[in-house]
Amino acid sequence: MQLGAYSFGDTQLNPDGTHRSTAEAVRNLFDAIVHADRVGLDYFGVGEHHTVSMPASSPGAMIAAAAAATDRIILGSAASIISTDDPVRVFQQFAVADAISGGGRVEITAGRGSSVETFPLFGFDLRDYDRLYAEKLDLLMTINGSTAEDVTWSGSVRPTLDNLAVVPRPVGGRLPIWIATGGNASSSARAGQLGLPISYGIIGGEPHRFAPLVELYRRSAAQAGHTGDNIKVSVATFGLIAPTKEEALERFYPGWRNLNIEMGRLRGWAAPDKRQFDIQAEAPGAYFVGDPDEVAERIVQLHGHLGHVRHFLQADHGGLPQEYLLESIALLATEVKPRVERLLAAK
Amino acid sequence: MVSTIGILGAGRVGTAIGRAALGAGYAVNIAGSGAGADIELLVDIVVPGARAMSARDAVADADLVIVAVPLHKFRTISPGMLAGKIVIDTMNYWEPIDGRLDEFERDARTSSEIIRDYFPEARVVKTLNHIGYHELETDGLPAGHEERRAIAVAGDDDAAVAVAMQLIERFGYDAIYSGPLQTGTAFQPGTAIFGGRHSADELRAQLALASGQRPLSGAQLA
Asked: What order of strands is seen across the sheet that includes strand B64-67?
């Protein structure tokens, strides 16, 4: 199983609680990706986000830079909000990064985004939410699936492409494209029908309860005649690894609390509740926060339910000190990974 | 006595309520936006035991209807279909998540009052809107348990409210009546109740605060 990290960028906080610069957050994210490659992590995902606290607004630019500075790690968006972007541009940015990487290390994960900031930012109407996503995903797949540079496509959300070149082509012919979903059942069915790999973002509840969604995904794929390597599942959750469980909780909780205070203010929900955190931070909750033994065991346990091929963790939010992020990434690659392999082999 | 529940909406909320209802011993009909066959595989796997139907069929023999469609799509439900039915409105006008909807933004009524007025012959109750859909299935506890959570219920029709409260209790939560539908304003997005975790006493205190009263003491509550 591949292990990885993902981030939306995490703007550091001053002692008085105000944000430091978003440029520093972007630089920290870049450093974390390079570090992840050095310590042998399999995957790093950059999630498109457009807030001061989480400023990784341009995954394509970040991944192109990281492609030049890394050797082995797989780089992807987690996710690209394609509803409000131009799929031609998204494809080109990732194909450029793919070329720089030498080929075969760059992926796109296409999503809708859990928040709606991009609609006013890029001038789209929320009433078109479903149509924008469906058509733009279709265009992205059309470009990626094309055997030639010239692409023809028409739809209602973007001008027609009539035999126009979209370059560069990926080194390997195509880029892996994943579908991101937060657990809506019809999204799982659709990803299966399209024959695309699926990436579940599980931000709460009990992740093993996604098992029926995975079954729906696999059966929808089989019904549509899609089999083979492209039918696979990845899972993204919160998580942080430290030498001990106690340290992991101490490091992760303040950022979680900061994030939830901010989100509560923006999104109108109640103040964060430590009881909720404590439940989520223990099996079978959704936060993989602990020492290498516990996190490895929990990933393998979840694998028994979902059969996922990749598990990746977001540790940095709410101003997590960068050194804790880097240590978590190192422990994930060097301590959790061999344990996961050992446990899976023993099954 | 409610035995069959019809759920309109097969998204995250509708399917989670469907599973909770099956677990509590109810029969469940569930409908998406189209024909029952469109969501048959989905329902078989995700809400096993429920019946996939069209919206019209799902509500026809239901003793209680749960509306869990995206709020901006509520007008796709024909009002006549719900005439005489007890209807739980689980929806929220949640602008930061779902975007701005002018019809709710400009209206002085709460979202559930707008729903009630759209379904004039239905007996609308507001509840199940302030607890996370994935918590609903996992956090239910037997009556009397010291960690049992509470869920608020608002409605104008006493008998309909009583039916909804019984459902909440069977799901494993203390049901707390807040008053007429308009009092649902106390547990909409942006309130201290929305998305929080409350015991019955804590929830009563929050509702009392929201209504401008002094919170009742424990003795008064008992």
From this structure: B51-53, B27-31, B4-8, B64-67, B86-89, B123-126, B150-155, B174-179
**b/e string for B152-180 if b means 16 or more Cβ within 10 A?**
bbbbbbeebbbbbbebbbbbbbbbbbbbe
Q: Which domain holds residue A183?
A: 2-345
- For B59-74, b/e burial (b = at least 16 CB within 10 A) is beebebbbbbbebbeb
| A270 interaction partners in chain B (CB closer than 8 Å) | 191-196
Cis peptide before A284 (omega within 30 of 0): yes
Q: Closest partner residue to B15 among A185, A268, A270, by Cβ?
A: A185
pLDDT at B213: 63
**pLDDT tens per residue, range B171-182:** 999 999 999 999
B222–chain A nearest CA distance, Å: 26
CB A144 within 8 A of CB A136: no
CB–CB contact B138 A116 (8 Å): no
- The counts of H helices and E strands in chain B are 10, 8
User: How would residue B218 be classed by pLDDT, with cut points 50, 70 and 90?
Assistant: very low
**Chain centroid to CA A296:** 20
pLDDT of B81 higher than 80: yes
pTM reported for the whole predicted model: 0.91
A181 in contact with B at a CB cutoff of 8 Å? no
Q: What are phi and psi of B92, to 5 degrees?
A: -130, 145
Give the integer Cα–Cα distance in Å for A183 and A180.
9
Q: Which chain A residues have a beta carbon less than 8 Å from that of B195?
A: 264, 269-270
Structural domain count of chain A: 1
Chain centroid to Cα B134, Å, comes to 14
Q: How far is CA A199 from the centre of its chain?
A: 8
Contact A206, A285 (CB under 8 A): yes
For B121-179, write each residue's pLDDT tens digit: 999 999 999 999 989 998 999 999 999 999 999 999 999 999 999 999 999 999 999 99
Interface of A with B in 52-111 (CB under 8 A): none
DSSP A5: E
**Cα separations in angstroms, B89 against A45, B75, B86, B112, B206:** 38, 13, 10, 7, 21
Q: How far apart are CA A121 and CA A296, in angstroms?
A: 40
Q: Which residues 6+ apart lie within 8 Å of B221 measured at CB?
A: B200, B201, B204
Contact A269 B72 (CB under 8 A): no
CATH of the domain at A165: 3.20.20.30
Residues β-bridged to residue A236:
A201, A312
CB contact under 8 A, B45 and A219: yes
Task: Name the token pair of B47.
Answer: 């809400």
pLDDT mean across residues, chain B: 93
B49 touches chain A (CB under 8 A): no
DSSP string computed for A128-191? GHHHHHHHHHHHHHHHHH-SSSEEEE--SSS--EEEEE--PPPTTSS--EEEEESS-HHHHHHH
Q: Which amino acid is residue B149, in one-letter code?
A: R
* Six-digit token string for B70: 């995206």
